[in-house]
Amino acid sequence: APQAKIGPSILNADLANLAAESQKLLDNGADYLHLDVMDGNFVPNLTFGHPMVKCLRNHIKNAYFETHMMVNSPEQWIEPMADAGVNLYTFHIEPVKDVCNVCRLVQESGMKVGLAIKPATKVEELARYMEVADVVLVMTVEPGFGGQSFMADMMPKVEWLRCNYPNIDIEVDGGVGPKTIECCAKSGANMIVSGTAVVGAPDQRQAITQMREVVQR
Ligand code: DX5
Ligand code: ZN
């Protein structure tokens, strides 16, 4: 089964000190960084784009960067994000007409590609793309904000994916932390995004280690 990886989301970190906050998470054992890119249209919030990611990459040379593209036209940002040094480009399938084409463009740019679905999107919508996707992301909150409550009723989607695609990387994102990691792990998720629960943890290393251990069990 795919390896357990903990990828803190920096959305609720001090974004004016993004490099230091990110380095601290990596020093505390984070396997990758989950960078939430929001366009103010696909979701009612606005964060940052490729200029910020490019600067972050100048400070943090080797870490694995995932951008979670909560945007209406993900194909527009593929080249800028690849140029900024992104490793995994995860976009929402809801606003995209030709998902396979966007996947191909992402992979041709040298990045891995992830497909994300909102809570209201049926998991079967992903079935036709499973040959091309490197990662699938099941949102466990309505995208747009950190610090929301975990939606346990999303777990059947994770179970369905793990049962049908035993070797794919399945990521969960939203309200995940030491208190909710158990059911994510049991359902079959192996890539764990956690924002508030890790960034705000009194002991980040302990929070990251504990969640990884639960997933690896
Ligand atoms: C929400 C973002 C998530 C969020 C996770 O739209 O995609 O990555 O920042 O943060 P928590 O773990 O606080 O829900
Ligand atoms: Zn996210």
UniProtKB/TrEMBL annotation:
**Superkingdom assignment:** Eukaryota
Sorted keywords for this record are: Carbohydrate metabolism, Cobalt, Isomerase, Manganese, Metal-binding, Zinc
- Quote the record's cofactor note: Binds 1 divalent metal cation per subunit.
**Chain sites annotated for binding substrate:** 9, 68, 144-147, 175, 195-196
Known CDD domains for this protein? RPE
Some GO term, biological process aspect, for this entry: which one? Answer: carbohydrate metabolic process
Hey, which family's this protein in?
Answer: Belongs to the ribulose-phosphate 3-epimerase family.
NCBIfam families named in the record: PRK05581.1-4, rpe
- The protein depicted here goes by the name Ribulose-phosphate 3-epimerase
Organism of derivation: Drosophila lebanonensis
